[in-house]
Design brief:
The chain is α/β, with parallel strands linked by helices and 440 residues long. It has three domains: 4-176 and 363-439, FAD/NAD(P)-binding domain (3-Layer(bba) Sandwich); 179-250 and 289-360, FAD/NAD(P)-binding domain (3-Layer(bba) Sandwich); 255-287, no CATH class. It has 14 helices and 19 strands. The protein has helices at residues 21-34, 87-94, 97-102, 110-123, 197-207, 221-233, 255-258, 263-271, 274-284, 294-310, 366-369, 371-374, 409-412, 422-439; strands spanning 11-12, 14-17, 45-48, 128-129, 132-141, 147-156, 163-168, 170-173, 177-179, 191-193, 213-217, 238-242, 315-318, 321-328, 334-340, 345-351, 353-356, 360-362, 401-404. A hairpin with a 5-residue loop joins strand 14 (321-328) and strand 15 (334-340). It is globular. Bound molecules: dihydroflavine-adenine dinucleotide.
């Protein structure tokens, strides 16, 4: 039966764009708070997700990869420790609570946390439309010139031509980051971004094509995981890790530095002057960017040393080096030109695959937001101005709300694109939505 929330004539309180962990956390906050309220006091929410079903970085669900955030920073616990949407409740339902505890870790497997997200998403599936890619958001102007709601248009992501338009007093934009491909390089059958690692490697393995050499560009967590994964998956292949640093930098997850991910740190960061914000980002960059878990660094080093001892080195580290270009290869798929930066010397590495573990970038929201983007106010650095409750500051005629989850590092700090504060942020947005509705 069609849910009443799917009726495109209704003006919804909030439409979520993207249904990753950020909007999933918000949908749970909405659902929990709606429970028991009379219909006229419930927030009407709908979340639009372009994937056919819930999926969190599926391309990097490497079997032994673990979370880099404590399970207590799940979708709900910091907002409501008694919520039955917690990771612990998930474990109890799966019959693994005691087994998990015996592991004595705060950091579950990434694949297990994915199952947890899926389990939670399933429970709020009445609020989600999958296979719905949002292609336009347009504020609607009334006779007085005021814009109190948006029209949000999405198309069937499976490729049918049909599109649906919803009306919403607020939107919560949580579309995540997009894979970064460095200038001069292009994705192809032989050149992948690590965000597609598992499906691409699985296809290659199934094709039976020989994999003699794989080159991985980058020195962050994803790069190190990719190197390790390819080395295990293709036992005949040489795996070359290319990066401009001298060696991998360990992630700083020490307790004092970790406080930069606390909800209170968001308050402090938000109210700090621009130069203090910048220095906080610079000081604590090594908690998140271009860094690798120490355990993985040590495991890779141990593998490489073991191979030295055995006299067959499949794992190679081309440090102080850059990929300068690629061209089609004779025997292998590619010739990768690698420059040793210390001398400028170049070598051509024949390779069957090049994986770009070159990070992610915030999405440009302007094309999606259309005219609404022009009504957003900007700060001195030309970034979108966002209030403490994650709501974009706009011209006064636009009273419909745009909430941003992600892409707000300039205003809210390092947690903007991470999981640490999703539960708290969902609470802040939910409260703001309620306050707005009461005021209207
Ligand atoms: P996320 O990217 O997860 O979701 C965005 C969603 O929007 C996607 O489902 C996408 O399909 C959808 N979408 C995009 N455009 C759309 C459109 N036009 N219409 C409809 N839907 C659209 N952080 C952390 O704190 N701890 C950790 O352990 C990790 N681990 C980790 C591993 C890997 C491999 C990566 C790549 C990243 C992490 N992260 C992380 C950081 C990561 O960004 C974070 O965990 C969340 O994915 C952020 O959730 P969001 O919902 O904001 O974005």
């Amino acid at each position: 039966m069609k849910s009443p929330l799917m009726d495109s004539d209704v003006i919804l309180d909030v439409v979520g764009i993207g249904f990753g962990p950020s909007n999933l956390a918000l949908s749970i906050a909405v659902d929990e708070r709606n429970t028991g309220l009379p219909a006229d006091r419930r927030l009407n929410a709908l979340f639009l997700e372009r994937q056919p079903r819930f999926g969190w970085h599926r391309g990097m669900l490497i079997d032994d990869a673990t979370m880099q955030v404590s399970f207590l920073k799940d979708l709900v616990t910091l907002r409501n420790p008694t919520s039955d949407y917690s990771f612990l409740c998930f474990l109890r339902e799966r019959g693994r609570l005691i087994d998990f505890l015996n592991q004595k870790t705060l950091f579950p497997l990434r694949a297990e946390f994915h199952d947890y997200f899926e389990w939670a998403a399933e429970r709020v599936s009445h609020l989600v439309s999958y296979g719905s890619e949002v292609i336009a958001v347009e504020p609607v102007r009334d006779d007085t010139g005021r814009m109190t709601y948006f029209e949000v248009t999405c198309r069937d992501a499976a490729g049918s031509r049909s599109s649906v338009t919803y009306r919403a007093r607020n939107i919560s934009v949580a579309m995540g980051l997009e894979p970064h491909v460095p200038p001069g390089l292009e994705l192809s059958e032989h050149v992948w971004h690590n965000s597609d690692l598992i499906p691409s490697a699985t296809r290659l393995a199934a094709s039976g094509a020989p994999v003699r050499r794989a080159v991985v560009l980058g020195a962050g967590q994803s790069a190190a995981e990719t190197v390790d994964y390819l080395h295990r998956t293709f036992p005949e292949a040489e795996v070359c890790s290319v990066f401009s640093k001298y060696g991998y930098t360990p992630a700083d997850d020490s307790p004092f530095a970790n406080r930069i991910f606390d909800p209170e740190a968001v308050d402090i960061y938000f109210s700090a002057p621009a130069e203090v914000k910048q220095s906080l980002l610079d000081y604590h960059r090594s908690t998140n960017y271009s860094v690798v878990d120490m355990e993985l660094i040590e495991a890779l080093y141990a593998t490489s040393y073991r191979e030295k001892v055995a006299g067959r080195e499949r794992l190679r580290f081309l440090n102080v080096s850059r990929v300068r270009g690629i061209r089609p290869g004779d025997g292998c798929g590619l010739d990768v030109a690698v420059e040793f930066l210390a001398t400028g010397e170049q070598q051509a590495l024949p390779a069957d695959v090049l994986v770009l573990a070159t990070g992610y970038r915030p999405r440009d929201l302007a094309p999606l937001l259309g005219n609404a983007a022009k009504l957003c106010l900007r700060d001195d650095g030309d970034a979108i101005r966002v209030d403490r409750n994650h709501r974009v500051a706009t011209v006064p005629e636009l009273t419909a709300g745009i909430y941003l989850q992600g892409g707000t590092e300039h205003s809210h700090g390092l947690t903007s694109t991470l999981l640490s504060t999703v539960a708290v942020r969902a609470d802040e947005i939910h409260r703001s939505l309620l306050a707005d509705r009461t005021a209207a």
